[in-house]
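Annual report, structural modelling task.

Input specification for the pyridoxal-5'-phosphate complex:
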Amino acid sequence: MTITTTKIWLSSPHMGQKEQHYVNEAFDTNWVAPLGPNVNGFEASIENYLDNKVHVAALSSGTAAIHLGLVLLGVSTGDEVLCQSFTFSASANPICYLGAKPVFIDSEKDTWNISPVLLKKAIEDRIEKGKKPKAIIAVHLYGMPYKVDEVKAIGEQYGIPVLEDSAEALGSTYKGVKCGSFGEIGVLSFNGNKIITTSGGGAMVTQNNEYKEKAVFLATQSRDNAPHYQHSEVGYNYRMSNVLAGIGRGQMEVLDDRVAARRFNFEYYKQKLGHISGIEFLEEMPEMYSNRWLTCILTPSVQIREKIRCQLQEVDIESRPLWKPMHLQPVFQNCDSYVDGTSEELFDRGLCLPSGSNLQTTDLDRVIAVILKIMTK
Ligand SMILES: Cc1ncc(COP(=O)(O)O)c(C=O)c1O
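The model returned the following structure:
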């Protein structure tokens, strides 16, 4: 095998044919502002894609969408918010922006997402301690849906709304319905490494149009209806730029292709590595369809995971350990958690492999060769 010197990235942007057309249109018409036809068009195309009577507000990031979502759910100083521990820190940080406290919940083995058993246990324990949690943040990690029905039922049983962090799961479905549209509030991210990108950006999704209107109001500095600048509420500068929304419009036109390409990557890796003793892949449950944003493998131990990661790095291939759980992060060391070791083990053993939709099979073969060499010694 010839090793080329081209770097293989974990997940790089992949432009289609139309992005530049929409961006040029923004320049040609001077809609170089955080409003305009691309913002409206991008929102409409996401609403149409999610296909579940949803309303979408395009924002500057997924983190901003989580922040505004929590504001809309009434989270404020001193509240507690239950949050999946196994996730990227952006799921939890906005809880702290509001002076509230995250309480972390471990994952279950089937989906690597929030454990309905531990979630219920945590809610009952917090209520017994005299504090009912204000919201639940559940995450479709790496594109794999969480157990939507179970989590929803628990939320309804105790009257606690669910914020659905679908930052990594645009294109995934649960029982045939698109992820992003299940929560009281849903969140999407269009960061540069996501399945589609606007370079940086995000969106809040909701079935409640009043939430959308309020989100746009808050995202544009909470400006009252007056000829002068008047504000009765604290506002934010979180709206998406019309230039970036142009990239998003083009990306929406190729989203299905991007999902297909990432699913192909997963199948290819599994076909070539699935038979190796000590390498495991996360399978979909029958009601789930993952966009396979990142293909992740479990190795036998943290030592072998590191050996693979370092040897990939030596030949210019980027890979990454799975997310370090939030309950193990120094910044959250004073937060309570309900854990059983599942996410800690996933973190120790797991590695994300290069998964971009622009990778060729020759790129995947380079990754596979390194892993095979280590695992079949
Ligand atoms: C699970 C999860 N939540 C939230 C975010 C935040 O999105 P953004 O980077 O657009 O702020 C990301 C990605 O970055 C993510 O992976």
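The chain has two domains: 19-252, 255-375.
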